[in-house]
Specification:
The complex is a heterodimer of chains A (117) and B (493). With 117 residues, chain A is mainly α. Chain A is 28% helix and 3% strand. Chain A has a domain at 23-63: Histone, subunit A, CATH 1.10.20. Chain A has helices at 27-36, 43-60, 95-99, and strands at residues 105-106, 109-110. Chain B is globular. Classes of the chains: A mainly alpha (117), B alpha/beta (493).
Chain lengths: 117, 493
């Protein structure tokens, strides 16, 4: 279904036509992804996100038309050798600094709700 | 005192060294300007006047003792993405409530080591995700520019909207910013300022809150090309704490300003001429071409065939990296915590309350494209397309092109709360169509003001360079600036 970007009037040359066969997300998928992302969503939010995520996924779908046969996926934007250093302790002994911004701590430990019964 | 804030960094440097002015006077002038303007512009989310005056006093002592650094006594604004020791650092997000790092980012440390003075932390889109500075937890920044005869509030662009607005309104001498898809160059273009996004690896990313690690790069927003050159020289460094920072000499960027463009080849990519682009953007581009030709450069048409795929590929790669980077905000180690019935409930409630709509949207997209069964179709495909985008640039440079000239943005600044843009996230994303290619290829890019549109609002041109050849961009941008002049908003605030 082609979706026109009229209104703003600037981008008519960049209209994003959404092909019929896109992988689209439904309400159950949105809820599953929200669970994976550890974000609580209300029913209203989940419903709104179905439309928004499908809009974005429809926009990125045009990548599937690019012929990438024999093309390596980019792993590093500038060719560089990973720097190495001696395997040695170079930092540490600052537990108080590390927990200083935590919401709840006790004796330099982070406190969380009970995980194991 | 107001004339003190109208000095560029280069002008203030001369007066400070000649002892015509004091760093404390200059800093006080900026503090007063911020106090008078910030309610209206919302550029700063935290002002640090005591710290600024302390730093300025130390600068005055060093200036008196003949030990002045490169930026001695120059008052700067810092984007809220940079960790500043003991001072508000929240990436303008609710989820980092109360966070005060016990360390300093490498970029800001470099600036303080050179004698710069910190005025405070600047507003931005939450976690640098946005093109209008409207996603900030602290509310939108108002552009100091208004259309002629109008009092409509305009956006300053984003994500470095606070940086751009503060520089344009003379609420700092210069500002730090960051650019993941256009977040330095688009707000610079919207505010008549100069924004330089350096090559990936030029500035250390250590202590900068991560959005998309393979794309993020710090750079300056400044009033003119010379000030941007001065700032980048101080910001850049190789850093043991960021393995992607490069060990290459940092040139004296200022030294190339005024050099001839004779013998240079400037590429004009046909793919940046999009249907529906306002006629005045095309006219501005042609004007830029004419200026560079007059300065002795050879103009060549080039093709970057994968340009149109850069933005869709970006909206897979950047959210994927963001969903991973932002997993750390879980209510355990820092910031906001909302209690729940168990640990998973605590995570979910904390993240639901702490992240804004746009950030949630991107985390969701990133989580989806990285989830089982979709990784190859989306993420690997996007990274392959990214290889092709970079190859387009490599081929152009290999054919002898020294720099590429394009428009910076497809329009001038738009209104706050634009309904069309609010209704469709993709439409907002299209603001970055001309800038995002540069991040995908890791190249340097600079936005330089080149004129005003029919509404009297600034428009910018962009120059794209070879990796680590920021000097070429400064030299070429300076020619455009000399021809176009500089643009300052009429003060209404």
């Amino acid at each position: 279904m082609p979706v026109a970007h009229g209104g703003h009037g600037l981008y008519s040359g960049w209209e994003t036509s959404y092909p019929e066969n896109i992988m689209s997300v439904d309400l159950a998928t949105v809820k599953r992804v929200a669970r994976l992302a550890r974000i609580a969503v209300s029913e209203d939010e989940a419903n709104r996100m179905v439309g928004e995520l499908n809009g974005i996924l429809g926009f990125v779908e045009q990548l599937s038309e690019v012929n990438v046969e024999g093309v390596e996926a980019m792993t590093s934007v500038t060719p560089m050798l990973m720097k190495k250093r001696t395997d040695a302790v170079t930092d540490g002994s600052k537990a108080a600094d590390i927990v200083a911004n935590a919401p709840v701590t006790d004796q330099n430990f982070f406190l969380v709700p009970k995980v194991v019964e | 005192m107001s004339e003190l804030t109208s000095l560029t960094i280069a002008e203030a440097r001369t007066k400070l060294r000649a002892k015509e002015i004091k760093a404390t006077e200059l800093t006080q002038a900026y503090i007063s300007a911020i106090e008078a303007a910030n309610d209206k512009l919302n550029a700063y989310i935290k002002v640090t006047p005591e710290k600024a005056l302390q730093m300025a006093e130390a600068s005055d002592a060093r200036l008196a003792g003949g030990k002045a650094g490169e930026l001695e006594g120059i008052p700067l604004g810092i984007k809220d993405l940079f960790a500043t020791e003991g001072i508000h650092t929240q990436a303008c997000s609710h989820i980092l409530d109360g966070f005060k790092p016990h360390y300093e980012s490498t970029v800001t440390q470099n600036l303080w080591d050179d004698g710069a003075v910190m005025l405070g932390k600047l507003n931005m889109d939450e976690f640098a995700m946005g093109s209008s500075n409207e996603t900030s937890f602290y509310g939108p920044v108002i552009n100091p520019w208004r259309a002629e005869g109008s009092n409509q509030q305009l956006v300053p662009g984003g994500s470095s909207g606070g940086s751009a607005a503060a520089v344009a309104a003379h609420l700092c001498a210069g500002a730090t910013a960051t650019d993941t898809g256009g977040s330095i160059r688009q707000p610079a273009a919207f505010t008549g300022t100069v924004g330089m996004k350096p090559t990936y690896g030029r500035c250390s990313r250590w202590g900068t809150v991560a959005f998309a690690s393979s794309l993020d790069q710090a750079g300056p927003i400044a009033r003119d090309v010379r000030d941007a050159a001065i700032l980048l020289k101080s910001m850049a460094s190789v850093d043991a704490k960021d393995t992607t920072s490069v060990d290459l000499p940092i040139p004296d960027y200022e030294a190339v300003l005024g050099q001839s463009l004779k013998g240079m080849k400037i590429g004009i990519p046909n793919e940046y001429r999009v249907d529906g682009m306002p006629e005045e953007i095309e006219t501005l581009w042609q004007q830029g071409i004419a200026w560079l030709k007059d300065a002795g450069a050879e103009i060549v048409n080039i093709s970057l065939p994968h340009t149109k795929y850069a933005l869709p590929a970006y909206y897979i790669v950047a959210p994927a990296e963001a969903s991973s980077n932002l997993a750390r905000y879980d209510g355990v180690r820092y910031g906001l915590r909302v209690d729940g019935k168990d640990i998973a409930d605590m995570y979910e409630k904390t993240r639901a309350a702490g992240f804004g709509k746009e950030v949630k949207r991107r985390i969701m997209i990133g989580t989806y494209v990285l989830s089982a069964g979709y990784y190859d179709a989306y993420y690997i495909q996007a990274q392959k397309v990214r290889t092709l985008i970079k190859r387009d640039f490599d081929l152009a440079f290999h054919a002898g092109v020294d720099a590429i000239l394009t428009p910076a943005t497809p329009s001038s600044a738009f209104g706050i709360s634009d309904e069309d843009l609010a209704a469709d996230p993709v439409k907002m994303y299209l603001n970055d169509i001309f800038t995002v290619t540069v991040n995908m290829a890791g190249l340097p890019g600079i936005a330089v003001p080149a004129g005003l549109d029919h509404k009297g609002l600034p428009l910018g041109l962009q120059l794209i360079g070879k990796p680590f050849e920021e000097e070429t961009l400064f030299k070429t941008a300076y020619v455009i600036e000399q021809a176009a002049g500089r643009f300052t908003p009429a003060k209404w605030w």
